Amino acid sequence: MKPSARISLSRPTRRPANCHFSSGPTRKRPGWSPDVLSDACLGRSHRAKPGKAKLQYSLDLMRQLLRLPDDYLIGIVPASDTGAVEMAMWSLLGARGVDMLVWDAFGKSWATDAAKQLKLDDLRIFDAPYGQLPDFGQLEDDRDVVLTWNGTSAGVRVRHDHWINSGREGLIIADATSAAFAMPMPIDKLDVVTFSWQKSLGGEAAHGVLVLSPKAVQRLESYTPPWPIPKIFQLAKDNKLIAGIFTGATINTPSMLCVEDAIDALEWAQSVGGLDGLIARTDANFTVIDNWMKGHNDLAYLAQDRSAISPTSITLTITADWFTASPPEEQAKLAKDLTALLEEEGVALDIDAYRDAPPGLRIWGGPTVEAEDLAALTNWIDWGLHTIHMRATAQ
C-alpha cells in the first residue's frame, strides 16, 4: 500500500528549537533558566513576612491575569489540580443533586469519587466517549454540576456557556487545569474553578489553585457535609470559611521554590500581553497544527465536533489505511513506535496519547510553546509516519 501524498519520504532537516511538547508538566516559558529562582524565599517559614508576601503576590498576579470578579476568592492548595478538585467536591457536594459531566479520564475520576467515595444519593452521570461531549441540555439549574472544562486526555473542550443560566441555584465546579490562562472562560458564571501551574504557565507541579464565587462561599458557610473531611480538604471550620487560605496562609507547607517559579511565569505572562496575549499565543499554535491537518489523510482530531477541539491538549488519531487495518493491539504498538522514534530523534518528547485514550498523539499547544517549533514538528511527524509504515511493511 502506498503512503499518503502528504507523508514526507525524506528526513527533515529543520528541528524544533525546543522538543518539549508534554501536556503536563509542560514546557517552561521562553527564556526560562534556573537563575529566575534566585530570589526564592528559601530556608524560612512560609508564614514569615517575606514568605507570606510572595504567596500573596502570586495570588494577586493570578487574580489580575484571570480578571476575577472582585468578590471571588483565590487560594493556593496542596496536591495540584487534583487536590483542588477534591477539596471542592468533599466540602461542597451533597446539599443538592449532582450532575457529573464526563468525557475524559479526569472527569471519570471525579465521577467515580462522587459515586464510590462520597456515595452521593442523588447523582447523575452523563458521559460521552473520547472525542465527544455529553448533551448539556440534560442539566437542571437546581443541581450542582462538576465538569472538566478542557479534557486534557481527550482534546475536547467546552466552547460555549449558553447552558449556564444566570439564575441557576446549583453550583458549577469546573476543573480548568488545561484551560486556565489559555482560552476564554466565563469565570464569572462558574462557582469553583481549579487549575495548577504545571499546564498553561509551564510551572512546577504539586500545588493547585482554587477559585470560589460568593455562592460557593455561602454554601461552605451554610452546609456541613455528612462525611468526615480530612484536614487537607477543609475549607471551612464551624460553618465559617477558613479565610486565610485565600490570603496566602496555605493549608500545608508550600514549596517556595515552586511559588517563585510560578511568579516568574505569571510575570512573563504579563509581559506578553496578559490573558489576551496568552490566548493569542495558544491560538497561533493551534493555527499551525490546524493548517497542517487540513486535507491530511493519515491523521484526524479525536474531537468529532470542530468547535470542541482543544487548542492546548491537541489530540490526534492515526487514520492511515495501513494503521486502521491493523488489529487494536498492533495499532497501540505502532503509535508507541512513532512517538518513540520522534523521541529518539530528539524532536518531540512525551506526545503519546493519554494511556486510556485511543492510540495516537497528544501535542501541547499552550502559550509557553513557540509556533515555529510546532511547524517544525509537523514535518517530523509526517516523516515518522512514513518511517513506521515502511518498518511495519518490511517485517
Give a description of the structure:
The protein is an alpha/beta fold and 395 residues long. It folds into two domains: 43-269, Type I PLP-dependent aspartate aminotransferase-like (Major domain) (Aspartate Aminotransferase, domain 2); 274-394, Aspartate Aminotransferase, domain 1 (Alpha-Beta Complex). Helices cover 34% and strands 15% of the residues. The chain has nine helices and 14 strands. The strands form four sheets. A seven-stranded mixed sheet has the order 1-9-8-7-4-2-3, sandwiched between helices. The protein has a three-stranded antiparallel sheet with strand order 12-13-14. Helix 3 links the parallel strand 2 and strand 3 (123-127). It is globular. The mean pLDDT is 96.
Please specify the SSE layout and strand pairing.
Elements lengths: L48 H18 L6 E6 L1 H13 L5 E5 L2 H13 L5 E5 L16 E5 L1 E2 L4 E2 L14 E4 L16 E5 L10 E6 L1 H9 L13 E2 L2 E2 L14 H16 L2 H20 L5 E3 L11 E6 L2 H4 L3 H17 L15 E5 L6 H24 L1
Parallel strand pairs: 2-3, 2-4, 4-7, 7-8
Antiparallel strand pairs: 1-9, 5-6, 8-9, 10-11, 12-13, 13-14
Helix pairs in contact: 1-5, 6-9, 8-9
